[in-house]
Structures are given as C-alpha cells and as structure tokens.
UniProtKB/TrEMBL annotation, chain B:
Stretches that traverse the bilayer: none
Name by which UniProt lists this protein: Extracellular solute-binding protein
Keywords from the named record: Signal, Transport
Signal peptide: 1-23
Entry keyword Signal: yes
Pfam families named among the record's database cross-references: SBP_bac_1
Annotated family: Belongs to the bacterial solute-binding protein 1 family.
C-alpha cells in the first residue's frame, strides 16, 4: 500500500512503464475496494446518515404527525424549547448519573472478572467464560422484566429474601421512590453489561506481552506495581474502547427505564424523553430536536474519550 | 445446448412464479375481500365474533383479526403510525374512546354512513354515544361500554355499618376502611388509570378537565383552576394519605388493585367489571376460594359530595373504519354484524366486557352470569367520558405528571397541571 509513486516528472528514460503499471494496479485495487466496500457504504448511508439528516431537518419544524396541515418552520425554536426546559436537564442528569455509576462499577467488576477468566485453569476456562457471559446474551427487555419482577412489591422475592437487612421490609416499594428505582435500574444495567466490558478487557489483558510481566517480576515488582506500571498502561487502548462503547451504550439507556418505571418518580432518561415526544405525543419536531441533542451528546462523549485517552488507534493497529 | 436452454427456461419459469407469488398475480379466484379487524387483546371473544360474522356474511367478506398491544396507549401508537402512512390494511379498529377525537380530527376514520350511524346508536347507553362522537358527529360505532364500579367485601361493609344500598362517599369509605383496618384499592400508578380516577373525581365534584374544546390547541379552555378541581384534588390527597391505600399504592394499576382485593388486603376497590370474570375463573382454576367470591359486593362509584351523584369512569371499545381501507362500505356492514345485540351479549358472557346496548343488560342469561348487570347499566347512564380533545395524550400525560404521586397532590396541583397543559399544547414545554 506504500508503493504509490507520484507521476514521474523526470527524464523520458526514467522507466515510465513500471510507474504506469503500478498506477494501473493501484487504480484497479481502488476500484475493487470500492466495489467491495461500496454496497456496505451505501447501506450505511441509507440506514445511518439518512435518518440523522432527516431528524435534523424535522427538528426545524413544529410538526405533529396527526396534524400535518399545521406544520410550520420554527428554525432553532425547538432546540430553545428543549434546552430551556427543566425536564430536559432533569433527564440529562438522570442519564449522566446512570452512565457514571454503571460504567464505573462495570469497569471495576469487569476488570476483576477478566482477570479471573485469564487466570482460570484451562479446563475451567470455557465454563467460566460462558457463565460470566450469560447475562449479556439475554435481551435487555427480558432482563429488565426479570429485575422488575424480582423487586416488585407483590410478586417479587427480594423483600422476603433480604428482609434481614436494615431498611428492607415486606413493604419496601422499590419503584415508589427515585433513589430506589434508580438503584434497581443501575443494578440491572450492571448485571447485564458487565460481561461485555470484561470480554473487551480480557482481550486487552491477553495482549499484554508476557516478556514485560516476567521482566517486572524479575525486577522484584509486586502484583500491584506490575498491574499499575505494566498491565494497565499496555491495555490502554482496550480500556478506552471498553469505556467508550459502554458509556455510549449507557447514555442511551431506555429499555430498563421503560419497563421498570415508565419514567415515573423522576427516572426519565434522555432516550425516554425523545421517545415520549416523538412516539407518544407525535410531536415529530420537538422529538427530533431531543434526538439530535442526544446524538450530539454521544458524539461529544466519543470525541472526549478519544482525546482524553490520547490513544492513537491507527498506531495501535500498526499503521504508523 | 438444448440442456442449457431448458435450464434457462426452467430458471425463468421459477423466477416468474416467485414474482407472481410476491405480487399476487395469476390467481383467478381471489375469493371474498378480507377485512382486517385490529383488536385489543381479550380472551378470544372478538375472534369468535369475527368468525361468526364471516359465516353470516355468506361470502360477502371475510373478517380476519390482528391483535394490537395490551396497553391502550400502545394500541394508539401503533395505529397512528400506520394510519398516518395510509395503511390500507386497516379496515376495522377496536378503539379506546379517549383517542377517538384525535383519530377523527386527523382524518383517519372513514365517515359513518347516516343510516348505519342511526342504527348504531339505537338503544345504546348515552355515555357510549358521547364517547363515539366528535364535533357532534358520530365517528365510530359503539361496541362495548365499560364503567367502573365500587366493589366491596360484604362482610367488611357490614362490620363498618355502611348501607351499601344507598350511594356512599369517598369520606365514608376512608372512615370505614380505617375502622376495619382494611385497604381501599385505587389506581395510584403514573398511568392512564390515574387520569381515569382523577377525571371521575373532578366530574363527580361537578367540574371538568376541559371546559371548552377547540381545534387549535392553544384555544382549549381548562377547568383545573376551579373549586371543583380543588375538591377533587383534596379527595385524592385525603385518600392517598389516609393510610388505607396500601404500600404499593403509587405503583398500583387495575391488576394490582384486584390482586389485593382478592387476597383480602383491600375491603373496598374501584375497578372495571373484569374483576368478576377474573374471580370466577380463579374459582374454576382453584386459585380462589368460593367464599371470597361469595363475599363480593358491588355498588355505583363513590360520590365526592353527599347527595351529588357520582360520575363513574367510562371506557370500553368503539369500532372505527380506516379512512384508507379499500372496503369502507363492507367494513361498516361488518360493524353492524359485530355490534348486534346477540354478539354484544355473547361477548359480555365470554369476556366479561359489558355491552353498549342497554337491552343486553335485561337478558336473563346475562343477569344469571353477571348479577351486577343492572348496576353496570345504571353506572353507564351516569358515566362521563374523559376529556374530549384531539390532544388527549398531551392532556393525559400532563395530568399523570402533575398528579403523580397522589400522596403529593396539593391545592397547587390543579393550577400547576393547567399551566403545564397550556405550555405543552402551545409547544413551549416538553412533556
């Protein structure tokens, strides 16, 4: 891929034929590349770019689905309505809270599980991995229902199992207050996606060269020192990818809130807010504005992570 | 060479057949038109009616049922999306009354032919006619009409000294529940059921959520600042904070209410008549003791102020015909079959959903199966629909936001809710 030669400006005898030959080959390769990647690129444009642009366009209108006759252009008015509304900031706060809490806990738990999976005996490893990964295989809506039923006041078992703990009794209504509702939502999210983060971290751990570990060991480094100075710095890219993916995912949390509280008791997230404006209220303009703001938040998070971690993915791939 | 040609011909024939299969061409006898009836989930009664009406149509049409989601708000969401896109497969719809104005205003419903409309409202409870009407025009066909009753345990009411042959007030119920150390099962969950309860309270106090409807959302007049609204809020707050509603009150819907009534935790309950069918199934299935059901009593919905008749919640299902349906005439023909007194009676008995036609309540078979039928008929005559507006989901969503949890309802809740509805309807605030 690095053999592309600039058009020859030298003498006529400076072998133009091989240069043209290389150029033809490169052009053919490029064409082949486009032919292979083109359909996927077109599909990406269709399913990703088109809805994004459509949402941006729709967000500039006051438009109710059941009243298309009264559609009017309002410019950035919808954004002003959203950004000056306390509900948006409350939803944003709840979303940020769920994101920070779940991602922090998942990172610690996921790392511990990744270490367990890495160090497990060879015979035990497949069973252990399957057991750890099982929650991730369950559809989020199903897991949300399972957690809701477990904590439900009438059909749940949590109150009777944990009645010996202070503050829990047969009459503890977990979904009756903001704090306890958010606790259950966070627990469900953590249970569901810790396996995902541990899988990514396991891949990172496996990439840390044994030579470095051995050298540190020979130098007399303790386990903690090796972890801090060798293991973690060498898996920075894996940690960043794990954190980034999970943060983006957590920021779009919807299913658990939808199933467990339906947004009651101040548990509404940004995705849920967008859903209610667009689907329940049919206010396509306002809903699109919320969706675009959610999209921008996600872009900012991704940008922040990549800049903050200073990880050059191209370098990690060995392209530089 | 010949082999290759034969192979090519074969391929072409297979492709043509596949295309025909997709496009539906080449079928010489398409049979009678199929009408798709989008139904709300039930115990199979609507599917039985569809089969019976298909048989009765003598080949004029077939009715197929397609089941919508369980929650009425989700039914609305699915139908709205399809109707807005001009889905021609929606011939008949089972519609929850509060959403009918929105569907009518948006032009989603095919106009009701005059003679069909005249027959449809003949002998039907007034609340069901009101719920099927928008802008003084019948836009849907009443199918079954629902209303909430006050359910009570005879033993509890007797011990509390309540005379249930006379109307009772909420205050009396609270006092009785406190004296007997039992609960009142009401729906305090942030959902449509909470709006149903609040609307019944404000209407029973003589007020209305919407006093004047309008085509433009900004012009809708609200009655949430009124003394009647304050009275309704006071009653709701009193019940919620009286200590007789149970620990799960703020997350309880109709199903949770009936569960606590069945297990004996609640001695009083406001709920739809499905509780009777459920109790009988429980006895048949061995999950409920006959003595529990024998103790069931029923009366008209509680009053807010003594001497002022209550306005029980009105619900049920009406039939709408899709504006983009290919067979609107046949669809309306089918609705006449579906809503015949016979079918309403059969549906009442099979699924426990009361008829819209008042004659059905006098049928001896119905009375044998539902001894509370006369009380339901009386309640239907007294019942009041929820706010009639094309923006019902906004109004309902705002009320849910402001009146939940009912334990926190105060005199300021009414004006707050009015301000929120106004801001939401004029596009100045999110919901």
């Amino acid at each position: 891929m690095t053999t592309t030669a600039p058009p020859s400006t030298g003498s006529a005898t400076a072998a133009p034929a091989p240069a043209r030959h290389t150029s033809d080959r490169v052009r053919a390769e490029r064409r082949l590349g486009w032919m292979l990647a083109g359909p996927a690129f077109a599909v990406m444009l269709l399913v990703t770019a088109y809805p994004i642009f459509q949402a941006i366009y729709d967000s500039l209108f006051s438009y109710r689905l059941t009243d298309p006759g009264n559609r009017s252009f309002v410019g950035l008015g919808n954004y002003w309505v959203v950004l000056t509304d306390a509900l948006w900031w409350q939803s944003f706060g709840v979303t940020a809270f769920i994101t920070v809490v779940t991602v922090a806990v998942e990172l610690v738990l996921g790392f511990a599980l990744a270490l367990v999976m890495l160090k497990a005996l060879k015979g035990l490893r497949p069973i252990l991995r399957a057991a750890i990964l099982l929650p991730y295989a369950i559809i989020t809506v199903v897991s949300a229902f399972a957690w809701q039923f477990a904590f439900d006041l009438t059909s749940g078992f949590v109150n009777s199992w944990f009645a010996w703990l202070p503050g829990i009794s047969a009459e503890t209504d977990w979904f009756g207050q903001t704090g306890t509702s958010l606790l259950v939502i966070c627990l469900a999210e953590i249970w569901k996606t810790t396996p995902f983060i541990s899988l990514l971290l396991l891949a990172g751990l496996a990439q840390v060269p044994d030579v470095l570990q051995e050298a540190a060991q020979v130098d007399g480094a303790t386990w903690w020192q090796r972890m801090r100075k060798v293991t973690i710095p060498n898996m920075k890219a894996a940690i960043m990818v794990a954190l980034l993916f999970r943060t983006l995912d957590a920021f779009r949390v919807f299913d658990s809130v939808f199933i467990m509280t339906a947004g009651a008791n101040g548990t509404e997230t940004v995705s849920f807010l967008a859903y209610r404006q667009t689907i329940a209220r049919l206010e396509i303009g306002l809903g699109s504005a919320v969706s675009v703001l959610l999209f921008l938040s996600v872009v900012l998070i991704a940008f922040g992570f990549i800049k903050g971690f200073k990880v050059d993915l191209a370098q990690a791939r060995g392209e530089k | 060479m010949r082999q290759r040609r034969r192979r090519r011909l074969g391929t072409a024939a297979v492709a043509a057949l596949a295309l025909c299969g997709l496009a539906g061409c080449g079928v010489s006898d398409p049979g009678p038109p199929t009408l798709t009836w989008y139904i709300n989930p039930d115990s199979g009664g609507q599917a039985e009616i569809a089969a019976a009406c298909t048989a009765a149509a003598n080949g004029a049409y077939d009715i197929e049922v397609s089941t919508l989601p369980r929650e009425s708000s989700e039914q609305r969401q699915q139908l709205v999306r399809r109707l807005a896109a001009g889905d021609s497969s929606i011939d008949i719809m089972s519609l929850d009354p509060p959403y009918i104005p929105e569907f009518a205003q948006a032009g989603f419903l095919a106009p009701v032919p005059a003679e069909v409309g005249a027959r449809a409202i003949d002998g039907v409870a007034q609340s069901a006619i009101d719920g099927a009407t928008w802008n003084d025009q019948l836009v849907t066909i009443p199918f079954w009409a629902n209303t909430q009753l006050l359910w009570y345990k005879k033993s509890v009411a007797e011990a509390a000294g309540l005379d249930m042959t006379q109307p009772v007030t909420w205050d009396q119920l609270v006092a009785a529940a406190q004296a007997q150390d039992t609960q009142i099962a009401a729906q305090g969950r942030r959902a449509e059921s909470l709006v149903v309860w609040f609307n019944a309270l404000i209407q029973s106090a003589g007020g209305e959520v919407i006093t004047q409807t309008a085509d433009r959302p900004e012009d809708i007049q609200l009655g949430l600042d009124s003394p009647q609204s304050q009275r309704a809020s006071a009653v709701m707050s009193e019940i919620a904070n009286s200590g007789v509603v149970g620990p799960a009150f703020t997350t309880a819907g109709e199903d949770e209410s009936v569960a606590s009534f069945e297990n004996g935790a609640a001695g009083f309950m406001v709920n739809w008549p499905f509780v009777w069918g459920r109790a009988k199934s429980g006895v048949e299935g061995g999950t409920l003791d006959q003595s529990v059901v024998d103790d069931y009593g029923w009366a008209v919905y509680p009053e807010v102020d003594p001497g002022t008749p209550s306005a029980p919640p009105y619900g049920g299902i009406n039939l709408g015909v899709g504006a983009s349906s290919r067979y609107p005439d046949l669809a309306y023909q089918a609705t006449e079959c579906i809503t015949s007194d016979e079918n309403q009676k059969a549906y009442f008995i099979s699924d426990g959903n009361p008829a819209a036609s008042l004659a059905v309540f006098e049928d001896p078979e119905v009375i044998a199966e539902f001894p509370m039928a006369p009380v339901i008929a009386q309640s239907l005559q007294q019942a009041k629909p929820r706010p009639q507006t094309a923006y019902y989901s906004e109004v309902s969503g705002s009320l849910q936001r402001e009146y939940h949890p009912p334990t926190a309802v105060s005199p300021a809740t009414g004006p707050d809710a009015a301000a929120l509805i106004r801001a939401v309807l004029s596009g100045e605030e999110l919901l």
